[in-house]
Design brief:
protease, globular, mitochondrion inner membrane, mainly alpha, metal-binding, EC 3.4.24.-, 3-stranded mixed sheet, 64% helix
Protein backbone atom coordinates (compact mmCIF):
# COMPACT_ATOMS: atom_id res chain seq x y z
CA UNK A 1 0.00 0.00 0.00
CA UNK A 2 1.39 3.41 -0.98
CA UNK A 3 1.51 6.44 1.32
CA UNK A 4 -1.17 8.06 -0.79
CA UNK A 5 -3.44 5.02 -0.41
CA UNK A 6 -2.77 4.80 3.32
CA UNK A 7 -3.66 8.44 3.83
CA UNK A 8 -6.96 8.19 1.98
CA UNK A 9 -10.03 8.16 4.23
CA UNK A 10 -12.04 4.94 4.32
CA UNK A 11 -14.99 4.79 1.99
CA UNK A 12 -18.44 4.31 3.45
CA UNK A 13 -18.43 0.75 2.13
CA UNK A 14 -15.06 -0.09 3.73
CA UNK A 15 -16.09 1.47 7.03
CA UNK A 16 -19.34 -0.46 7.01
CA UNK A 17 -17.55 -3.74 6.34
CA UNK A 18 -15.05 -3.05 9.13
CA UNK A 19 -17.80 -2.15 11.57
CA UNK A 20 -19.82 -5.24 10.67
CA UNK A 21 -16.75 -7.45 11.14
CA UNK A 22 -16.16 -5.92 14.59
CA UNK A 23 -19.80 -6.38 15.62
CA UNK A 24 -19.83 -9.98 14.37
CA UNK A 25 -16.61 -10.79 16.28
CA UNK A 26 -18.02 -9.22 19.45
CA UNK A 27 -21.23 -11.23 19.12
CA UNK A 28 -19.32 -14.48 18.67
CA UNK A 29 -17.10 -13.78 21.67
CA UNK A 30 -19.96 -12.80 23.98
CA UNK A 31 -22.77 -14.91 22.53
CA UNK A 32 -25.05 -11.88 22.73
CA UNK A 33 -27.66 -11.37 19.97
CA UNK A 34 -26.58 -14.41 17.96
CA UNK A 35 -29.32 -16.03 15.92
CA UNK A 36 -29.78 -19.80 16.25
CA UNK A 37 -28.16 -20.25 12.84
CA UNK A 38 -25.18 -18.10 13.83
CA UNK A 39 -24.80 -19.99 17.11
CA UNK A 40 -24.82 -23.31 15.29
CA UNK A 41 -22.25 -22.11 12.76
CA UNK A 42 -20.03 -20.72 15.52
CA UNK A 43 -20.25 -23.91 17.60
CA UNK A 44 -19.46 -26.04 14.55
CA UNK A 45 -16.49 -23.85 13.68
CA UNK A 46 -15.16 -24.12 17.23
CA UNK A 47 -15.76 -27.87 17.30
CA UNK A 48 -13.78 -28.41 14.10
CA UNK A 49 -10.93 -26.24 15.37
CA UNK A 50 -10.87 -28.04 18.73
CA UNK A 51 -10.81 -31.47 17.08
CA UNK A 52 -8.01 -30.41 14.72
CA UNK A 53 -6.02 -29.16 17.71
CA UNK A 54 -6.68 -32.40 19.62
CA UNK A 55 -5.54 -34.55 16.69
CA UNK A 56 -2.44 -32.43 16.19
CA UNK A 57 -1.51 -32.78 19.87
CA UNK A 58 -2.23 -36.52 19.78
CA UNK A 59 0.06 -36.95 16.78
CA UNK A 60 2.75 -34.96 18.57
CA UNK A 61 2.50 -37.31 21.57
CA UNK A 62 2.46 -40.36 19.31
CA UNK A 63 5.55 -39.33 17.37
CA UNK A 64 7.38 -38.66 20.62
CA UNK A 65 6.53 -42.12 21.99
CA UNK A 66 7.43 -43.86 18.72
CA UNK A 67 10.89 -42.40 19.14
CA UNK A 68 11.49 -42.38 22.89
CA UNK A 69 9.12 -44.76 24.72
CA UNK A 70 10.95 -47.95 25.82
CA UNK A 71 7.70 -49.95 25.92
CA UNK A 72 6.37 -48.76 22.57
CA UNK A 73 9.65 -49.24 20.70
CA UNK A 74 10.19 -52.63 22.34
CA UNK A 75 6.70 -53.87 21.40
CA UNK A 76 7.08 -52.73 17.78
CA UNK A 77 10.41 -54.57 17.56
CA UNK A 78 8.89 -57.72 19.07
CA UNK A 79 5.96 -57.63 16.64
CA UNK A 80 8.46 -57.44 13.79
CA UNK A 81 10.38 -60.39 15.23
CA UNK A 82 7.30 -62.66 15.18
CA UNK A 83 6.55 -61.83 11.56
CA UNK A 84 4.36 -58.76 11.85
CA UNK A 85 4.82 -55.16 10.82
CA UNK A 86 3.50 -52.05 12.53
CA UNK A 87 2.73 -49.61 9.74
CA UNK A 88 2.96 -46.09 11.25
CA UNK A 89 0.01 -45.11 9.04
CA UNK A 90 -2.10 -47.62 10.99
CA UNK A 91 -1.51 -45.82 14.28
CA UNK A 92 -4.22 -43.20 13.86
CA UNK A 93 -5.21 -40.27 16.04
CA UNK A 94 -8.94 -39.80 15.56
CA UNK A 95 -11.98 -38.26 17.20
CA UNK A 96 -13.92 -41.02 18.97
CA UNK A 97 -17.67 -41.00 19.43
CA UNK A 98 -17.59 -43.18 22.58
CA UNK A 99 -15.53 -42.46 25.72
CA UNK A 100 -12.30 -44.47 25.51
CA UNK A 101 -8.59 -43.98 24.99
CA UNK A 102 -8.13 -46.27 22.02
CA UNK A 103 -8.71 -49.61 20.37
CA UNK A 104 -7.15 -52.28 18.18
CA UNK A 105 -8.60 -53.81 15.03
CA UNK A 106 -6.59 -56.58 13.28
CA UNK A 107 -7.37 -55.19 9.85
CA UNK A 108 -7.24 -51.46 10.55
CA UNK A 109 -4.58 -51.14 13.25
CA UNK A 110 -4.65 -48.91 16.34
CA UNK A 111 -7.06 -46.06 16.97
CA UNK A 112 -5.93 -43.39 19.44
CA UNK A 113 -8.80 -41.24 20.69
CA UNK A 114 -7.46 -37.70 20.46
CA UNK A 115 -10.46 -36.18 22.25
CA UNK A 116 -9.92 -38.35 25.35
CA UNK A 117 -6.12 -38.59 25.51
CA UNK A 118 -5.07 -35.46 27.38
CA UNK A 119 -1.34 -36.05 27.87
CA UNK A 120 1.54 -38.03 26.39
CA UNK A 121 1.73 -40.49 29.29
CA UNK A 122 -1.87 -41.57 28.75
CA UNK A 123 -1.04 -42.01 25.08
CA UNK A 124 2.06 -44.04 26.00
CA UNK A 125 0.03 -46.49 28.11
CA UNK A 126 -2.76 -46.63 25.53
CA UNK A 127 -0.45 -47.27 22.59
CA UNK A 128 1.51 -49.86 24.61
CA UNK A 129 -1.77 -51.59 25.51
CA UNK A 130 -2.95 -51.77 21.91
CA UNK A 131 0.47 -52.99 20.72
CA UNK A 132 0.20 -55.93 23.13
CA UNK A 133 -3.04 -56.82 21.32
CA UNK A 134 -1.21 -56.46 18.01
CA UNK A 135 1.57 -58.74 19.27
CA UNK A 136 -0.93 -61.33 20.52
CA UNK A 137 -2.79 -61.25 17.22
CA UNK A 138 0.47 -61.82 15.32
CA UNK A 139 2.12 -64.31 17.66
CA UNK A 140 -0.86 -66.34 18.91
CA UNK A 141 -3.44 -65.89 16.13
CA UNK A 142 -6.12 -64.68 18.53
CA UNK A 143 -9.72 -65.56 17.73
CA UNK A 144 -11.34 -62.26 18.72
CA UNK A 145 -14.77 -63.83 18.40
CA UNK A 146 -13.91 -66.11 21.32
CA UNK A 147 -14.64 -64.21 24.52
CA UNK A 148 -11.93 -66.11 26.43
CA UNK A 149 -9.30 -65.27 23.83
CA UNK A 150 -10.37 -61.65 24.06
CA UNK A 151 -10.25 -61.70 27.86
CA UNK A 152 -6.78 -63.24 27.83
CA UNK A 153 -5.37 -60.54 25.57
CA UNK A 154 -7.05 -57.81 27.66
CA UNK A 155 -5.46 -59.23 30.81
CA UNK A 156 -2.03 -59.27 29.19
CA UNK A 157 -2.43 -55.79 27.72
CA UNK A 158 -3.52 -54.25 31.02
CA UNK A 159 -0.70 -55.97 32.88
CA UNK A 160 2.16 -55.46 30.43
CA UNK A 161 1.43 -51.97 29.10
CA UNK A 162 2.22 -50.21 32.37
CA UNK A 163 -1.27 -48.74 32.78
CA UNK A 164 -1.70 -50.62 36.06
CA UNK A 165 1.72 -49.68 37.37
CA UNK A 166 1.79 -47.98 40.76
CA UNK A 167 4.27 -45.28 41.65
CA UNK A 168 7.41 -46.29 43.51
CA UNK A 169 6.27 -44.43 46.61
CA UNK A 170 3.16 -46.61 46.87
CA UNK A 171 5.27 -49.71 46.39
CA UNK A 172 7.57 -48.70 49.22
CA UNK A 173 4.75 -47.82 51.62
CA UNK A 174 2.37 -50.69 50.94
CA UNK A 175 4.91 -53.46 50.62
CA UNK A 176 5.40 -55.96 47.79
CA UNK A 177 2.50 -58.30 48.57
CA UNK A 178 -0.12 -55.55 48.75
CA UNK A 179 1.44 -53.88 45.72
CA UNK A 180 1.27 -57.08 43.68
CA UNK A 181 -2.35 -57.62 44.75
CA UNK A 182 -3.24 -54.07 43.78
CA UNK A 183 -1.68 -54.58 40.36
CA UNK A 184 -3.68 -57.76 39.77
CA UNK A 185 -6.95 -56.15 40.88
CA UNK A 186 -6.33 -53.27 38.49
CA UNK A 187 -5.67 -55.71 35.64
CA UNK A 188 -8.87 -57.65 36.38
CA UNK A 189 -10.95 -54.48 36.56
CA UNK A 190 -9.63 -53.08 33.28
CA UNK A 191 -9.93 -56.43 31.50
CA UNK A 192 -13.55 -56.80 32.63
CA UNK A 193 -14.40 -53.29 31.42
CA UNK A 194 -13.16 -54.27 27.96
CA UNK A 195 -14.67 -57.76 27.89
CA UNK A 196 -18.11 -56.42 28.78
CA UNK A 197 -18.25 -54.91 25.27
CA UNK A 198 -17.67 -58.30 23.61
CA UNK A 199 -20.73 -59.48 21.62
CA UNK A 200 -20.80 -62.77 23.55
CA UNK A 201 -20.74 -61.06 26.95
CA UNK A 202 -24.08 -61.06 28.77
CA UNK A 203 -23.32 -58.54 31.51
CA UNK A 204 -20.65 -57.35 33.93
CA UNK A 205 -20.96 -60.46 36.06
CA UNK A 206 -20.32 -62.61 33.00
CA UNK A 207 -17.29 -60.48 32.08
CA UNK A 208 -15.89 -60.85 35.59
CA UNK A 209 -16.39 -64.64 35.46
CA UNK A 210 -14.59 -65.01 32.13
CA UNK A 211 -11.68 -62.84 33.27
CA UNK A 212 -11.38 -64.83 36.50
CA UNK A 213 -11.49 -68.12 34.57
CA UNK A 214 -8.49 -67.33 32.36
CA UNK A 215 -6.69 -64.91 34.66
CA UNK A 216 -3.95 -67.07 36.16
CA UNK A 217 -2.55 -68.50 32.93
CA UNK A 218 -2.85 -65.22 30.98
CA UNK A 219 -1.50 -63.00 33.73
CA UNK A 220 1.52 -65.26 34.21
CA UNK A 221 2.32 -65.19 30.48
CA UNK A 222 4.48 -62.08 30.21
CA UNK A 223 5.76 -62.63 26.68
CA UNK A 224 7.50 -60.80 25.06
CA UNK A 225 8.70 -59.32 28.39
CA UNK A 226 10.78 -61.32 30.83
CA UNK A 227 8.68 -59.99 33.68
CA UNK A 228 5.78 -57.60 34.29
CA UNK A 229 6.54 -53.97 33.51
CA UNK A 230 5.65 -51.85 36.56
Amino acid sequence: MSKEEASKPLSASDASQGFNWWIRTLKYKTGISLTDQEKLAYEQENKVKTELDQCAKCNEYKNFMLQYSPTVTFMIDQINQVGGYVDPDKLKCEICTIPRYGGYNPGMGVQLCANYIDNKWVLNDTLSHELVHWYDNTRFKVDWGDIRHHACSEIRAASLSGECALVTEFKRRLGFLRYAKGHQECVKRKASLSVINHPACKDKEHADEVVEEVFRSCFNDTRPFETIYR
